[in-house]
């Protein structure tokens, strides 16, 4: 007997695009006093959101840069604070072009929160801060899947039990299991 397969289209939501981007940026902060030395630099209050943008996803966000510095020949200290806004374009390394654009949802995750790598006093009395950050993004949308079906089968009334009991594994020899899994 020769079986003829037919296909059906199923519409479902799926991850239709992914991307990741690591970046290093330099910000310049102008404290109210000319710094003698940098005692510490850190980033707090990071907030962001993701939006679809052409061939990628834009991560739009802000964070506060705090710089603890000494001035007046290391006799005084103060903390300078500046809020920085950014837009990071993350290209999609994978994109299924068959997705329905009207159903797009995008997400971003900071896989490396913005952090200070280096802070230096510049010749003109400002502070240059180098910051690293990384984002992973996903684009979820409706897409079509094609599945093969066997026409004319009367298996619709049968009950299938795809579950298993833990007793099924009692007699397994653990020495036969592959260590490379």
Task: Report the end-to-end length measured between terminal Cα atoms.
Answer: 39 Å
CA-based shape: elongated
Major beta sheet, strand line-up: 5-1-7-6
Sheet/helix structural class: mainly beta
Count of distinct strands: 7
Count of DSSP-assigned helices = 0
> Which band does the percent of strand residues land in?
over 45%
State the share of residues found in helices, binned by percent. under 10%
Output the radius of gyration. 28 Å
Largest sheet: 4 strands, antiparallel
Average per-residue pLDDT, rounded, comes to 87
H-E string? EEEEEEE
Low-pLDDT stretches are: none
Describe the SSE topology.
Elements: E1 6-29, E2 35-53, E3 56-71, E4 76-91, E5 94-95, E6 105-121, E7 127-149
Antiparallel strand pairs: 1-5, 1-7, 2-3, 3-4, 6-7
Notes on the structure:
This protein is mostly beta strands and 181 residues long. The chain is 0% helix and 65% strand. It contains no helices and seven strands. It has strands at 6-29, 35-53, 56-71, 76-91, 94-95, 105-121, 127-149. A four-stranded antiparallel sheet has the order 5-1-7-6, with no helix packed on it. Strands 2-3-4 form a three-stranded antiparallel sheet, with no helix packed on it. It is elongated, with a radius of gyration of 28 Å. The two termini are 39 Å apart. The relative contact order is 0.29. The model has no long low-confidence stretch (mean pLDDT 87). Keywords: Capsid protein, Virion. This is Spore coat protein E.
Q: What is the gist of this entry?
A:
It is built from no helices and seven strands. The protein is 0% helix and 65% strand. It is mainly beta and 181 residues long.
């Amino acid at each position: 007997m020769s079986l003829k397969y037919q296909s059906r289209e199923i519409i479902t939501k799926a991850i239709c695009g992914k991307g990741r981007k690591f970046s290093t940026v330099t910000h310049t902060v102008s404290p109210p006093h000319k710094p003698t030395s940098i005692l510490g630099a850190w980033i707090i209050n990071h907030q962001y959101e993701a939006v679809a943008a052409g061939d990628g996803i834009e991560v739009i966000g802000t964070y506060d840069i705090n710089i603890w510095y000494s001035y007046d020949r290391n006799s005084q200290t103060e903390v300078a604070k500046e809020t920085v806004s950014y837009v990071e374009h993350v290209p999609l390394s994978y994109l299924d072009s068959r997705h329905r654009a009207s159903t797009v949802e995008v997400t971003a995750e900071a896989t490396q929160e913005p952090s200070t790598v280096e802070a230096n006093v510049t010749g003109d009395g400002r502070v240059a801060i180098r910051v690293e950050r990384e984002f992973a993004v996903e684009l979820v949308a409706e897409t079509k899947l094609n599945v093969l079906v066997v026409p004319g089968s009367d298996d619709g009334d049968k009950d299938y039990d795809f579950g298993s009991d833990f007793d099924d594994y009692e007699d397994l020899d653990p020495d036969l299991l592959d260590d490379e899994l």
